[in-house]
């Protein structure tokens, strides 16, 4: 069978309604239609062409991004796109740009931390892009430790101004995207000092460049921090360095929703908790979780289509085997396909949680803020780590051709992998989750009932008294055959019991230390494992919740069920040590789980291509010869190779200089 015939043949085997699945994936019919329209708009406009990025030098790459970002903005205005449509357009343009930080962090920081008055002044300018902003928090010396930032904002009551200053080299702002060459303004995070007293880190709106000639304002030094990992990749972004030499700004440019500074330099705390200063990060972490499923599904789409097209080794009748039919390939690929769906649904749920906490904050209800912080931090960490690893696994699943830029995977990896670091290093964020869990466990004895994602810890209070013998867990009696693993309550109980037991065991170990902080530091590696178990439980439980909903479309729910159990059973297999050592399941039940997993792979196999088609990605967005919708891989790969600048001429530059003299010299030597 020719390459172009394989994928249609695969599609003919589909056992579910792909169009209905497209709507489930998008979230709603409306979201699907918007997304589909924007994807086509971008794909059909030559201005958004992106297939030459890996061949461009830094300056060309950056200028190209400026062109695309400003053109996208022009189209947004011309077509009067809604915020939702504009967001999708930016997504399909698929090129990191200063606009991400302007819309994604600068605007949300003002909205979340500015007073009404400040919002009225700055937001209209930002919305029209009459000013362009970035988020300048991280410094050369400190990123994770926000309280350790060194930039100072000292109040001068005589002039009613703050003096922003970089006292050391390590206080230079370092990393902010959009800062290096574009932003006119920044929300700068600095230590507030009034009347000689320190009041912690706060955000300040600072103008950096002239609105007339774009030159840095007096006292300000700015530049780009240099090339980053990967050729094209994140190098479209001008991550920058910034120092201040006693730069003065009016008092009303401190973002004062949390704390007000009066003209006398007095600090007045509002009823809003101090942590709201970190609110922009919570917002962005939530968007990063939603984005993880996009990056992961893109890599999986490429690897799945290519695995169907690629044949390796013969079978009896002489037709070589499609590599997707190897059980080892399925065991590596299908859990990633399942994760893409799992992250999609947990991303939807997290968006709901974020909206809920935002509404509560507006009504002065701060009770769910710690949980929102733990969930956004933990899920950001879990999903980005898994996605970065998965993109690399997809490259390997595509064999040698996966290493070619034409596969789209090297660039995707290079653009994606910093997500494990920005918006909080993934380990640092898991430690935040661990703190939250340990606090929750320590309060169980006092009768405080945990709610939301930690409610399960309340249900296993017995564990606090060490009554955690295997026999107390219902799963032990419920699983006697492989199919028993397909019961939602059983799966949930297994993940809850594992996480609860890990949390309680860690809490008990912490209790052995005289100083809890010493204990936390000593046991931090174990604590991170408990945080991972808790986050995996959230993902599994939200996928199971999704299955409880009414899901229209022939066979759609069945496919989602298969994927949900693949996701959960694969985790169970990978973390078997946790499940066995906490006594949640027996070795025999673990073996049954594996049998069930293999059976699910066989059920997914005929639907694999349709399950990635349901992502509805255009070839433009995928940017991969291996992942083409038509499966016409080999002719196009061959064609692509000839586009390389090295093939512009038959003889390479340098032939006369290096190759010829070398060959002549060998000829001369051999005659000797
Ligand atoms: C029209 C066109 C439309 C186009 C749309 C475009 C949209 C684009 C969208 C794109 C979006 C994004 C693009 C991505 C680009 C990425 C760019 C990257 C940016 C960055 O990286 S910004 C910098 C991020 N930095 C960090 O994340 C730093 C990490 N560190 C921290 O967060 C914290 O310091 C900490 C969590 C490690 C805490 O440190 P610690 O010193 O222990 O804490 P304290 O400050 O003392 O506080 C302790 C208590 O506070 C609680 N806490 C901590 N953080 C939070 C929080 N965020 N919310 C609520 N509560 C918090 C903590 O739990 C402690 O509580 P306790 O006292 O225990 O009760
Ligand atoms: C592409 C990119 C874009 C960025 N954009 C922006 C931006 O727009 N604005 C902005 O302000 N910043 C930005 N950043 C900065 C980013 O937020 C920080 O790099 C990130 O928060 C990590 O902080 P760090 O660099 O200080 O890492 P470090 O904290 O120095 O981490 C180094 C190592 O130490 C470990 N570690 C640190 N603390 C602990 C601890 N307490 N316990 C155990 N291990 C620990 C970490 O796990 C890591 O392995 C960006 C970064 C990147 C890569």
UniProtKB/TrEMBL annotation:
Source species, domain of life: Eukaryota
Broad class of where this protein is predominantly found: other
| Cell location | Peroxisome
Q: Which InterPro entries does the protein's record reference? A: ACOX_C_alpha1, Acyl-CoA_ox_N, Acyl-CoA_Oxase/DH_mid-dom, Acyl-CoA_oxidase, Acyl-CoA_oxidase_C
Query: What are the TM regions of this chain, as residue ranges?
Result: none
Q: Which residues form the Acyl-CoA oxidase C-alpha1 domain?
A: 278-438
Which Gene Ontology BP terms does the record give? Answer: fatty acid beta-oxidation using acyl-CoA oxidase; lipid homeostasis; long-chain fatty acid metabolic process
Q: Where is the Acyl-coenzyme A oxidase N-terminal domain?
A: 17-132
Q: What is this protein called?
A: Acyl-coenzyme A oxidase
Question: What species does this protein belong to?
Answer: Populus tomentosa
